[in-house]
Amino acid sequence: MLSTVARRSLNLRAPCRTSRHFFASVSSSSPNPSTVGPFQVFDRNAKRIQKNASVTKDNGETSRVVDYVRDEVADRMIERLMDIKRKFNTILDLGSGPGHFSKMLDTTNTEKVVMFDSSEKLLYRDPDSDFGVEVERIHADEENLLQIVPRNSQEAIVSCLSLHWVNDLPGVLIQMREALKPDGLFLGALFGGDTLFELRSALQIAEAEREGGISPHVSPMTDSRDMSNLLGRAGFTLLTVDVDEVKVNYPSMWELMDDLRDMGESNAVIGRRHILHRDTLAAASAIYKELHGNEDGTVPATFQVIFVIGWKPAPNQPKALERGTGQTNLKKVL
């Protein structure tokens, strides 16, 4: 069964930052580009370097300042978990980062959380004392889940804002379904295709005007309309997909770009441009404010978040009735 819940949004204001560096986000490329497969979209090594770099700055304090988007999304995920009247012995947090979701768990949800992330520095950023349940950490690439986690071993797998950097999303969904026990839960949140549409449009217009063409500066993301199909093809059942929006107001485009870098969310698309000319960026900032600016002079950034719930099939799960077996006339109900 697919349930689609209406959108809702929340406006946040980015925390004040004491200093700013006005330049485009620059990603480190893979040391061995020849190993990149033909179907890969993202440079996973560059993404790991970006995540590690976000933690090493100021001993992790800068990274903590920009936790606000992930913390908000994790809080909304916890609401969805609380609607599921089941306690899990262990929950696997895939792409956990420092534990935005895991920190919100308590013993009413689970006894133990296993955090799994490709960035070792981000994974170990915060101490165990910040968590309300027992913590285990696994440093490994989320794309290779079944190389680490046995099949049919997990009661629940969650993922809070990491799947948008996965090259083979259908393949990772299949791996998660395989890792779950029968009737196991998958609860996830990932950025949708409308995320940062304001930044994308401003950069595209400025680059086309100043340089005569455009290149990708915001990574491609999954469309919310496709997620139910992907989950169904991966073998999940009892599906729920809904969309929320988190809007954050920034003083200008420059602060947004700084925060994205400190979140470890800089561009990691294979074949990306590493440098944008300063006059192009200045033009993009002006276009951003002109097209999308708020009355108070700030600019909004929209983060579209797709929340998904799926279950691994099991014989004892509820099943939809056969077509035509209903006993109530819909006309009478309406």
Structure description:
An 8-stranded mixed sheet has the order 1-7-8-6-5-2-3-4, with helices on both faces. The model is unreliable at 1-8 and 18-38 (pLDDT under 50). By secondary structure, the protein is an alpha/beta fold. The protein has helices spanning 44-56, 61-65, 68-82, 120-123, 145-148, 169-179, 197-211, 224-233, 253-262, 278-292, 330-333, and strands at 9-13, 88-94, 110-117, 134-139, 154-160, 180-191, 237-250, 299-311. It has one domain: Rossmann fold. Helix 7 crosses helix 10. The chain contains 11 helices and 8 strands.
Quick gist of this model?
By secondary structure, this protein is an alpha/beta fold. It is built from eleven helices and eight strands. Helices cover 32% and strands 22% of the residues.
Strand order of the largest sheet: 1-7-8-6-5-2-3-4
CATH-assigned homologous superfamily: Vaccinia Virus protein VP39
Cα separation of the termini: 21 Å
Mean pLDDT: 84
Shape: globular
Domain module tally: 1
Feature tags:
334 residues; alpha/beta; Rossmann fold; 11 helices; globular
Write the layout of secondary structure elements.
Blueprint (H helix, E strand, L loop, with lengths): L8 E5 L30 H13 L4 H5 L2 H15 L5 E7 L15 E8 L2 H4 L10 E6 L5 H4 L5 E7 L8 H11 E12 L5 H15 L12 H10 L3 E14 L2 H10 L15 H15 L6 E13 L18 H4 L1
Parallel strand pairs: 1-7, 2-3, 2-5, 3-4, 5-6
Antiparallel strand pairs: 6-8, 7-8
Helix pairs in contact: 7-10
